[in-house]
Structures are given as C-alpha cells and as structure tokens.
Design brief:
The protein is built from eight helices and no strands. The protein is mainly alpha-helical. The chain has one domain.
Length: 170
C-alpha cells in the first residue's frame, strides 16, 4: 500500500492542477526550487549543530557534563544514567536516539532507565534544531523568549517522563 503513496499523491496533485487548468509540471518545479532554497538557507545551521554534537561526544565533554549533572538529576528523581540524553536531546535528535539506544542496550528496554529514555525521546524536542530551522525559514533572527521557554518545556518533559515511568511501572 505504501508503495503507491508517492505516485498516488503525484497523480492526485496533477489531476487537481489539470482540473484548475494549471501547469502541474511548472508548479512542481517551483515547489522543488523553493524547497532547495530553504535547504540552502538552513544548511549551515544544520552542519554546525551536527558538528558540535560530534565534537562534544568525541572530546568526552558530553560524558563529563553528564557526570557533573548526575547528582542534580538524582535529587530531582531523574535517573542519573539519562543525564547524557537530557543534555544531547535539545541539540540533536539523531545523537539523542543513539544515546537512547545505548541506554536501552545497556540497561534493557524494560528497565526503568530504558523506559525513561524511551518516554523522554517521545516527549521532548530537538529545541535548537527546531528553532534554527523554523526561525531560519521565516527569517527571524532574534529568538527572544523562545529559547528559554522551549528549554523549560523540555525540562518539564524530561521530569514528567521520569515521574510517569516511576508512577506507572513501579
């Protein structure tokens, strides 16, 4: 069924354009060009974010930060093992998925740490990536209160993920 999704969508959009007597091919080319312009405008930010995450992980800084924040996380009821995930998730989704997979491989998917990591991945956002992509696409340069509010929302998501797993699985 999914094999027919893209051809079906192209056929539907072409039929819609023909019904309105519009040039479907030109419209699709314009959309492709707009997409490429958007990609070019956000590509430097994406490259920077991916590079920064790799530097943090390769240098050991991410592990050091994780160890530094572990006591605070324990006090808040967040498993200290998830500290690296909490620190990486707002920056990079793919790095966070890798960290989550490592946690689940190390502790097991049904362990409190594995479950907490899974809920954290599902209930938080890659804040810096999202802000840079959407604000960059809209041409907005000043984030003002967006970043602090989004990071606070991420913190609430991490905290509630930890609490939810504790409440529902103990």
């Amino acid at each position: 069924m999914l094999d027919y999704l893209v051809p079906g969508l192209l056929f539907f959009l072409s039929a819609l354009a023909l019904k309105d007597r519009q040039d479907a091919y030109s419209l699709m080319l314009e959309g492709g060009q707009a997409g490429l312009r958007l990609l070019v405008s956000i590509l430097p930010t994406l490259i920077f974010l991916v590079t920064a995450v790799q530097i943090l992980r390769a240098s050991g800084a991410a592990e050091l930060l994780s160890r530094c924040f572990a006591p605070l996380f324990s006090r808040l009821g967040i498993p200290p093992e998830t500290a690296l995930l909490v620190l990486i998730r707002p920056i990079s989704g793919s790095a966070a998925l890798a960290v989550g997979a490592d946690l689940m491989r190390q502790y097991g998917v049904d362990s409190p740490v594995g479950r907490t990591a899974a809920v954290m991945l599902g209930s938080t956002e890659t804040t810096f990536y999202t802000i840079s992509v959407y604000f960059g696409a809209a041409g907005i340069r000043k984030t003002r209160y967006t970043l602090p509010a989004a990071l606070f929302a991420d913190f609430v998501g991490f905290f509630m993920a930890s609490m939810s797993v504790r409440w529902f699985y103990r």
